[in-house]
Specification:
Length: 293
């Protein structure tokens, strides 16, 4: 979805009211924010967090042109005041918060999603390359909340824990939902393994796991695209066969019309010859009768 000024204001008001930065991890608070916003617009808890951190990052860096996009002057004034309050909450409650502003697994993915690019179906590894920042011996935070089926597909272009952005690349209406559910299930299994390794205290090479996650997802999406291309080729073959049948039917109609035209010409020529012969005979009979009289 594309965030407007009103969307950002409503999101920031919920953040100020619930203050998710006081919790570690803040998953429950972000889920509450998402639930409160459902009566206004559909958004997942992960998307709430990404959008808030992105606006906060832009506010700290002084990137006001980005903050003013799709906002009126009055909305930007309110937005700026709310961001100041959110920044204060962040500074007061960040503490052991593992994903700092400007870093974390989803920071780069959130920035790419905010552009509301229509080419979400194109998988670009560089757009979602993870930047992992560890603080005070903490492990990278895992994000298990996933967007619901009711959220628009282009909002799903930002990946989960590894930020894998991908679409179906022009999938047919019948195969797209099943393929999407299969990929989500496989990604959840990999995320659960990564979370289990962290919770059990086992040493985990998290950057390597992220790269493995991205490569695995890319391979699955490539297989889906190959199937879609195969289906598309079959559709094109059917279209070409249909066009050929239409051309053959047109040729037959043209040949039948030509035969009928030739038959009409022969009939007219024959009738003309009969009339001419009849007139000649009539003239001879009349001339003979006049001579006899």
């Amino acid at each position: 979805m594309r965030f407007t000024g009103q969307h950002d204001i409503q999101l920031l008001q919920e953040v100020v009211n619930l203050n998710p930065f006081k919790d570690t991890p803040p998953t429950t608070t972000w889920a509450s924010i998402s639930k409160n916003l459902e009566r206004l617009f559909m958004i997942s808890s992960r998307r709430c967090r990404e959008r808030t951190i992105l606006m906060l990052d832009q506010f700290i860096k002084g990137d006001y042109p980005s903050l003013q996009r799709f906002c009126t002057k009055e909305e930007f004034t309110i937005k700026e005041q709310l961001l100041q309050q959110v920044l204060q909450q962040y500074e007061d409650g960040a503490g052991g918060y593992s994903s700092r502003i400007g870093g974390g697994i989803v920071a780069a993915a959130a920035a790419a999603a905010d552009e509301d690019n229509d080419d979400d179906d194109e998988f670009d590894l560089d757009k979602i390359r993870p930047r992992v920042i560890l603080h005070d011996g903490s492990t990278p935070e895992h994000y298990t909340s996933r967007q619901g089926d009711s959220e628009p597909d282009h909002a799903n272009g930002v990946g989960g824990a590894g930020g894998g952005g991908g679409g179906n690349g022009g999938a047919t209406a019948s195969s797209a939902p099943a393929a999407k559910r299969l990929r989500v299930a496989d990604d959840d299994l990999l995320l659960e393994d990564m979370m289990a390794a962290s919770s059990d205290g086992r040493p985990a090479d998290f950057p390597t796991q992220v790269v493995t996650f991205l490569l695995s997802r890319q391979a699955k999406e490539m297989r889906v695209r190959e199937k879609e291309l195969k289906l598309r080729r079959e559709e094109l073959d059917l279209e070409r066969a249909k066009l050929k049948l239409q051309e053959d039917r047109h040729a037959l109609e043209k040949a039948r019309f030509e035969i009928e035209r030739q038959e009409r010409e022969l009939r007219l020529r024959s009738e003309k010859q009969e009339r001419t012969l009849f007139m000649e005979v009539l003239k001879k009979v009349i001339s003979t009768g006049l001579a006899d009289s």
